[in-house]
Amino acid sequence: MYDHRHPGSQTTTPASKKTVVVLGSGWGSTSFLKTIDTDKYNVVVVSPRNYFLFTPLLPSCTVGTVDIRSIIEPIRFITRHKNNAIKVYEAECTDIDPEKKVITIAGKSLGYTTEIKGEISENTIPYDYLVVGVGATNQTFGIEGVEKYGCFLKEVWDAQKIRRKLMDCIETAAFPGQTEKEIERLLHMVVVGGGATGIEYAAELHDFLVEDLKAWYPELVGKVKITLVEALPNVLPAFSKELIKYTESTFKEQNISIHTKTMVKDVKEKELVVQGPDGTTSTMPFGLLVWATGNTARPLVRKLIAKMPDTQKERKGLAVDDWLRLKGSDSIYAIGDAAVTKYAPTAQVASQEGKYLATVFDKLAKAEQLEAEIVSIPEDQKMKLMRKLQKLREIKPFHYSHQGSLCYVGSDKAIADLPLGLGNFTSGGVATYAFWRSAYISNLFSHRNRWLVISDWTRKTLLGRDISRE
C-alpha cells in the first residue's frame, strides 16, 4: 500500500524509440499498459476517461452494494509505476489518419460536462504504432426511445443515472394520493437483455428490494415488480443448459418475471411496445428501464472502417488478423470490443489480448534492435544472430484461454461454468457465490480496490445500503 501511494522516480524514454499510442482505458488497453516495457517504447495514452473501470461489479453500484469509487483505478496509478514515464491525456480521439500515422484528439470527457475550457481544445499526435482499444457503444437496434427514456449499464454515469431514477420511482410511488395504477407503473422495473449484465442487475435490484426497501418503505412491500425481457429463446446463452435452468428457477423463486422470445419494438416515455413469441404486440408500462442488449461500433471505429473499404468489411468493429493487427495496416492494432475476432467480446478476452499484444511489441522491439546490430558486425558472426532474429519474427498468433464464466443470480447465490479437463464443471448456489466473490476480488487491478470492495460488502452486511438519491 505504501508503494502504491509513493511511486518511485521515473526516467524518460529516449526520443529515438518508437511511439506507441494507446486509445482507451478499458480492459484491453489497461492490460496492455500494465505489461508493456516502457524501456523499449515511448507510450502515450489517450482516453476520454482517466480511469479503468472494473465493469463486472458495475451492477452492484446501481443499488449501493458497492461504491463506484471502489471499482475504478485511475490510469495514472498504473502508468506512474512503470519504469519510464507514460504520457496520459484525458481526451477523445476524433480521427485516425492511417497514411500519415497521426491521430486527432479533442479535449472532451466522455459522459461528463465541464465548464473548464483551455485555449487549445484540439491537437494531433503522431504514432509509429497505434493500439485501438476504445471499446464499443450500446446497441439500440435503431429504436430512438431507448436513449431518451432508458438507462444503459456500461459506464460510471450509467450506474449513477440508474440509482437516481430508481430512487425517484420509489419516492414518487410513495407520494400521497398516488393512484394504484400509477404506483404499479412506477414500481415496475424492466430489464431488456438476458446476458450476464442484465441478469446481475436484476439480481442486485431484487436483493435491494428484499433486504432494504421493506425496512424503509414498508407501504411499498409487495408492489415492486421486476421483469426481464430477452429476444432469444433463453437467458445466459454463454452458459450451460443446467445453469440456465437454475437461473430461471431462482428468478422464479424471487418473483422476477422472464419473458424470452420477446422483442422490443418501441420505447415510449412510460411504456414498452413488445412482440411476444406468438407474434402479438402488447404494451408494458415501466418506471425504470435498463437496456443491456449488446454492443455496436463507436463512431471513431466506423470512421476508420470507412477509410479502409478494401480491407475493413466488418460492421461490428475492426477486422484484425490472428496477431490483432488491423487488416490493411502494418502499424495499427485493435483489441477488446473495438476488434472483431473469433472470440466473444468479453472483458476476459480483452484482458488477454492486451497482455498478448504487449509481448508482441516486446519481440518487435528486440527484433529491430537485433537488425541494427547485424548490420555492424562481420559476416562470419552474422549467422548466429540471424537465427535469433528469425526466432523473434516467428510470433505465435493470439490464442484465448477461457478461464470460465461467473454470474450472480441474487439471494446470495451465483453460478459458475468452469473448464475442467476435457469438459466443464458447473455449479450454482451459496458456495458458488463465495467463489464468485473471491474471483472478483482477485481480479481487481490493485490492493486498494480489493480493500475498498471488501469494506463495501462488510458495510452493506452490517449497516445496509444507502437509500439516498445522490
Can you tell me about this structure?
The structure is a single chain. By secondary structure, the protein is of the alpha/beta class. Helix content is about 35%, strand content about 25%. It folds into 2 domains: about 1-135 and about 295-380, FAD/NAD(P)-binding domain (3-Layer(bba) Sandwich), CATH 3.50.50; about 145-295 and about 405-465, FAD/NAD(P)-binding domain (3-Layer(bba) Sandwich), CATH 3.50.50. It contains 14 helices and 25 strands.
Strand order of the largest sheet: 5-2-1-9-21
Strand content: 15-25%
Distance between the termini: 30 Å
Number of helical regions: 14
Mean pLDDT: 93
- Class derived from helix and strand content: alpha/beta
The CATH class of the largest domain turns out to be: Alpha Beta
Shape annotation: elongated
Helix content: 25-40%
The radius of gyration is 25 Å
What's the total count of β strands?
Answer: 25
Largest sheet: 5 strands, parallel
CATH topology of the largest domain: FAD/NAD(P)-binding domain
In terms of per-residue confidence, which ranges show pLDDT below 50 for 5 or more consecutive residues?
none
Architecture (CATH level 2) name of the largest domain: 3-Layer(bba) Sandwich
Number of domains: 2
Give a quick set of tags describing it.
single chain; 470 residues; alpha/beta; FAD/NAD(P)-binding domain; 5-stranded parallel sheet; 25 strands; 23% strand
Give a brief rundown of this model.
The protein has about 475 residues and is an alpha/beta fold.
